[in-house]
């Protein structure tokens, strides 16, 4: 069985002892509790590069999961994405230990300013040799807003509007401030940078203002590869405009296929090629040499899933306190200010609404995404089937027991995918963007709105001054 495109793979991680499967940190072989050491990250990066992964995708959240029972106690005691470290700071060590691996780093723009944030991204793009992506998120936890001294989060759609403004300001800095060739490094002439070729950016948007030059010289990609995750109606418009890659979930093939279709349509509506966005579907894969061994591994892991931890996570994501839900009561749709797309999936997507038991199931419903268990050939069949049925480009492989779930995938599934001709056998040269989009250059493609802020190119948006 072949698919018409080569599959893309990211290892989905977080700088926290627990990620999306609460409780697995307790498994005797899990090393996730060492998330605060460089060795942990360097080992992980080497494993992912050994498997020719496109990248490590680092989730992040600003705030703690205190929606469940109105307290963060469950999240803290069960390590439900708490404690968590700044994902930016674990990247340089991984970059030093690898040559090709990309890094998709999540940052919540709501609590950043474009001027210093653009420099932080540029710094990372320099230090990684052009291997950085930014997963643009806008936040969903009220606790994060309070931590930032705000009474409440911005309203759901307003977050995306502010995101448009943030991105426009950032494009101006990344693309329009420093001309190519502005940096001369001319020792004899005593000129490091030609001031005439570094332009002052004036941005006067509804949310952000800038009057200044970008602080850093252009990095290999200038604008990082732009990831996005969030598939509400407004989220899709945002992705259609800005995203070069989207991370999405969906517990059934039709649900995920619809999200992919809508996102490609949103890109088309924004004047871009629908296939200018790489779609990564979240997936949990439990693989072993034989099916029987894989099933027994799944059962072994399942014993460590922490129900309270799972409920704390889902309560935070949805903005709905699941402690109030009866054991067999189905979740009812409410419009919340958190992840609206997830609330829709859980209540209206799939065959039936979710119950408490579903959230704690170590299976497709608990994953809300492909959950694949089997021998290597069965896993490969399933991955290809999901990609074909949904038109996704690849998978963000969710961490279960670290590092063994990733190691098993690299050792057992990657060769299987390669032998079918659906996965690369070596890395292409170039930046993350060039690897994700063969034949492209290191910079944003011409049809991307950010490219319009480049000096000397036709302007799709008002020019940077
Ligand atoms: C698969 C997926 C992964 C996400 N990862 C993060 C994350 O790491 N950090 C974060 O703050 N938000 C994350 N989000 C939240 C989204 O960025 C977005 O804020 C949220 O889904 C609400 O938008 P929506 O209603 O358009 O989906 C994720 C969302 C999805 C669907």
Automatic annotation (TrEMBL):
This is FMN-dependent oxidoreductase (Nitrilotriacetate monooxygenase family). Residues 438-465 are annotated as: Disordered. The keyword Flavoprotein applies. InterPro entries: Diverse_substr_monoxygenases (IPR051260), Luciferase-like_dom (IPR011251), Luciferase-like_sf (IPR036661), NTA_MOA (IPR016215). It comes from Methylobacterium goesingense. GO terms for molecular function: monooxygenase activity. Keywords: Flavoprotein, FMN, Monooxygenase, Oxidoreductase. The keyword DNA-binding does not apply. Residues 25-390 form the Luciferase-like domain. Belongs to the NtaA/SnaA/DszA monooxygenase family.
